[in-house]
Amino acid sequence: MIELPIRRLPHAEGLPLPAYATQGAAGLDLVAALPAGQPLTLQPGARAAVPTGLEMAIPAGFEGQVRPRSGLALKRGVTVLNAPGTIDADYRGEVAVILINHGGEPVTIARGERIAQLVVAAVVQAKPVAVADLDATVRGAGGFGSTGLSSGSG
C-alpha cells in the first residue's frame, strides 16, 4: 500500500475523502463536489467536467486512472467520457471527472454522489527507439478483429 496525499479544496468541505467501498475493491470512490442545493443535470448526449474538490500528489512511478462506476453506467447511462482518464504524477490541480449521459433521459448528479472510481496503478515509461525493422510474429500486421476469429465465422 502506498500513501496518497490529498488536499481538500474549500468547495469539498464536508465531503469524504476517496475510499474503497469494500476490502477487495480496486478503485477509490470519487464524489461530486457540486454546490449544495445546486445539482447538475446532464441532458441525453451532454457532457460536463464534474469537480471533486480534491488535489492529490500521485507518487512518482504511478498514475491515477479515473474509471466509470458500473452501476451509474448500467442504471443511468452515465459514464466517464475519456475512460480511463489519467492523472499524471506531476499534476497538482483539482481532479475533475468528465461525465457523459448516453441514456435517453436527463440525469441529475447531486453533491456527494459517487461519480467515478480512482485506481492508482504503477507506470513504466518507455524510451522510443527508431529501428529499420521489427521482429516478425504470427499475427504480423493483422489489425482490428484479426484475432480470435476462425475461418468462415462472421
Automatic annotation (TrEMBL):
- Print the keywords alphabetically: Hydrolase, Magnesium, Metal-binding, Nucleotide metabolism
Q: In what pathway does it function?
A: Pyrimidine metabolism; dUMP biosynthesis; dUMP from dCTP (dUTP route): step 2/2
EC code(s) of this entry: 3.6.1.23
Catalytically driven reaction(s) = dUTP + H2O = dUMP + diphosphate + H(+)
Which terms under GO biological process does the entry name? Answer: dUMP biosynthetic process; dUTP catabolic process
Q: Which residues bind substrate?
A: 69-71, 82, 86-88
Co-factor requirement: Mg(2+)
Which stretches make up the dUTPase-like domain?
16-148
Q: Which Gene3D superfamilies match?
A: 2.70.40.10
Superkingdom of source: Bacteria
* GO terms, molecular function: dUTP diphosphatase activity; magnesium ion binding
| InterPro entries, alphabetized | dUTPase (IPR008181), dUTPase-like (IPR029054), dUTPase-like_sf (IPR036157), dUTPase_trimeric (IPR033704)
Q: Which family does it belong to?
A: Belongs to the dUTPase family.
Q: What does this protein do?
A: This enzyme is involved in nucleotide metabolism: it produces dUMP, the immediate precursor of thymidine nucleotides and it decreases the intracellular concentration of dUTP so that uracil cannot be incorporated into DNA.
HAMAP family to which the protein is assigned, alphabetical = dUTPase_bact
> What is this protein called in UniProt?
Deoxyuridine 5'-triphosphate nucleotidohydrolase
Q: What is the lineage of its organism?
A: Bacteria, Pseudomonadati, Pseudomonadota, Alphaproteobacteria, Hyphomicrobiales
